[in-house]
Amino acid sequence: MRSTKMEQNPEFKGTMLSAFLGKEVYIFIRGGTKLTGRLESVSTYELVITVSHKPVVVLKHAIDYIELAG
What we know:
- By secondary structure, the chain is α+β, with helices and mostly antiparallel strands.
- It is 19% helix and 47% strand.
- It has a 5-stranded antiparallel sheet with strand order 4-3-2-1-5.
- It is globular, with a radius of gyration of 12 Å.
- It starts with a helix and ends with a strand.
């Protein structure tokens, strides 16, 4: 399977997640855990979400997928 330039470019992936900034999201972690919170920031290797009024750092390599809540 060939990758497109967009899939290889980390800036493109950050742009996609930037559309979720400030919104409630579900983050499904590879171990089966589901986090629900507001996406606060996106960087190259991690996300910061607010869960129960506390910031949580989630490493991107540990994420299966992300959905918008509601």
